[in-house]
Amino acid sequence: MANFLLEIGLEEIPARMIAGAEAELGRRVTELLTRERLLSEGAKVTTFSTPRRLAVLAEGVLAGQADTEEQLTGPSWKIAFKDDAPTAAAEAFAKKAGVAVNDLEKVTTPKGEYVGAKAQRKGRATAEILAGELPKEVLAIYWAKNMYWRASKPERFVRPLRWLVALLDSEIVPVEITGIAARRASRGHRVLHGEKPVEIAVAGGYVEALRGAKVVVEVSERRQLIRKALDKATRTVAGARWREDEPLVETVTHLTEWPSVILGDFEPEYLTLPEEVLVTVMRDHQKYFAVEGAEGKLAPHFLAVLNTEVDAEGEAIIRHGNAKVLRARFKDAQFFWDFDQKVPLAERVESLKAVTYHKDLGNYYWKTEENLVVAGRLASVVKAAGVAFDEAALLKAAELAKTDLTTELVKEFTELQGIIGGLYARAQGLDETVAKAIYDQYTPASTEDAIPTTVEGQLLGLADRIQTITAMFGIGFKPTGSKDPFALRRAGNGIIKILAESDLELTLDGIYSAIYPILKISGPSFNEVQVFLGERVKSYLMEARGFAYDVVNAVTSAGSMVVVTEFTLGAENVRHTIARAEALTAARGSEDFVAVSAAFKRIKNILRQAEEKKFEIGAADGAKLASEAQKLLAHADELAPKVRKYREDHAYTEALSEIATLRPSVDAFFDKVMVLDNDPAVRGANLGLIASVLEGFSGIADFSEIVTG
Amino acid sequence: MSSSVDAVKAASSALTFQDLLFRLQRFWAERGCVLQQPYDVEVGAGTMAPETFLRVLSAKPYRVGYAQPSRRPADGRYGENPNRLFKHTQFQLVLKPPPVNVQELYLQSLEAIGIDLLKHDLKFEEDNWEWPAGGAWGVGWQVMLDGLEITQFTYFQQCGGQDLDPICAELTYGLERIAAFIQDVDSIYDIVWARDPDTGVEVTYGDVRLEEELQFSVYNFEYADVPKLWEHFNAFEAEGKALLEQAGKLLTDETASPKDKKRFPLLAAYELALKCSNLFNLLDARGAVSVTERVGVIGRIRALAVGVAKAYALQKAA
Fold it and tell me: What residues in A contact B155, CB-CB < 8 Å?
């Protein structure tokens, strides 16, 4: 049993790509070793990465493949042996099988007698297999952006490959990738260790050898080191905490090989700038962590994660340098903030004519006008439903929402659009409701993000997104596959999330009928919008709410097989769709319910067969039904009004419990009754019965979609 | 606190601006680079000088370094912003093909200008570069020193819309930033440009360049005559297009002599493209290019620049 180590040495890999590539390398090596029967029972595969390397260590690798025996069949016996003497055919086969002619056997098969041979397959040595297979596996790793670097461009990879370590215990595996032959020499930290090679004596000693060269190869260990160092550095400021930021922790973990942390300061006067601006500069531009005081307010400090360790003098130099860069950036932001105040948002609407929204649609002045109309329409629907809000504030917000695109601060920090507009509105003394709606217009930006807190913000967010989607679909920009250049899926997700998590009494159909009359969009394109947003509901249920895909299919296709259409997605408040999915998720745990679901699947199959055979579906006429069928009919008739009542009251759990009580009747029916009876009258009545059961009880969910057993 | 600041000052060997350039030039000259002078036509970046843009197109190995004053009219701040300039200086280095130890060489060049890496934090962070109007792009990093971007490091992949083979490494040192860093000054204008070895009298960056920053900001933002700029643009473009048309005919003409092909003035056509690029930047700073027009104008510059690159490749093959 041996340990196998592969380390791929690279020039700095982009931080965002490392985790995926590390996992993929681990998967590829594991699959290779498994495919080649080289992993022992209980073998363990561990992966590592730093900005300059991807590595994998497989513990419990066999020295080679086991020998195998293979039964081969050759030419027919008659051709291979004439008068018991081997012919050329026998000799050729024996040679191919790697056995002596004497060892050929007679094999009797139904087709006749043939020559057989037991070929011994020598297992190949692990090193030989790895040397042959690894280059393909490594070069197949996916990169979001790659490059070529060797003359005549033989391969592409994320960055140039500079060294390779491949060891089976202490033996070098003779593999070569991109012209680099594997050795036992790795490299350490660029500065702290320098250019001298790091000899890896045995595969299992990898982690410690690199640690000696100032490289922590385990990602989880570096992450821990960074978190602890952030804690420690923050403790020097009384009552302070660093602001948790998981994505940033990941980024700096993938930017360092030997991390440490310094705490630096900036002038408290910059705290008059909005926190959003300060944090964006620190986090997005400088990759610094923000520090907050006891009440969660920003404190005039920052934390920088370094890729080195330095003495006190070095620390002072680095702190000084980082603080200087930050100060210059804050100074710029301060300048832009002051500069932008000279022209208030209200005076910027006209200048939106100079900002292109889309060349085939118009500029942001056009977009603003469209948004205003849509917002007004939505406002009427919501007002009619009795939701209280300030309509004038909504329209003011819609009018000013895009004006921050003309400010210097947004040109500098594009990621803060909307937020800057809200902050300026507040600073310029506009109504707080207006400011808040502008501020929140782009939220939620992701599944995890919260929706706008005010009705005005929610309506503005809906109007902006629905306008964007219908306008883009109108000129043929429908997202397809991985192509979604205008992030319409994200816009759609935002709409569904706002509908689902707000108290707006608004359905998708409500939105459609409100805006359809004013849209310049063709019928087919509009249908595509509806299908698209229906898909977004499904995606919301699965990704944001975590419902199983079969539950989602069941609740989103409810009523589609049969005539009942009260639950078409658009007509229903998304909150009720969620309630149905919740009830169904709870119900699927009950045995009775699962049995009923299976029965519904059966019903559907029978109805499909009947349709194929063109059997007539009659009325569920009691006179023509057998006694078990009559009992089911009676039971169904008794349940139907109850279920309907629960459904109307959105009491889905109760409705599903009622439906589950159908089980004994359904079971007995299928047990005793031959649905597709030879007598057309009986058959028609039976079909009528099961069709009415399916129709009557599929309104909450199409149970036949539920995956059972 | 004062002791740490002293440490900072002591640790920086405070090269003057011109010493910084000398050291970089010497370092790379000793590693086989041709030292060129700045290109004498307005460019937005060192990449646009023909020593990069056209040289990279051929397979012939080449190493060159030059300091290139780079004009970005929209970045002018009348000499009032301590960190932003209308015209900054790039020390541009092109290594074709890139040596395998190009990153190590780069680190040594930092040591050569007095940066003790053991006392600083250095990171290579992903930053891919492209110049759409030149059909040029590459992948690489911004080199961060104590949180400051000091160099753009790019592996060129395409130029003039053509795959490069071999590729080259392009290192672009931001000289003002690096000087402000090693001299530890808060404003670019306080950088010591030169120091008289006899008297110790210092000449600052502000002494040398402040007037230029002020007057060109005024010109770029206030005085540049928009209709005239468009006229210039159209005139340069027309001449460039005419040259390219002739080049196209000549270089694809199998009966034409290689000698005639080699002497065709594509380098002049490229200068006309550069003129257009600079005029576009001026018009942009004047706010005279609407967002809708933008794409179209960039397309016109691209047609010239990429056209020259394609013709140049044909000429080299002739």
Answer: 147, 149, 159-160
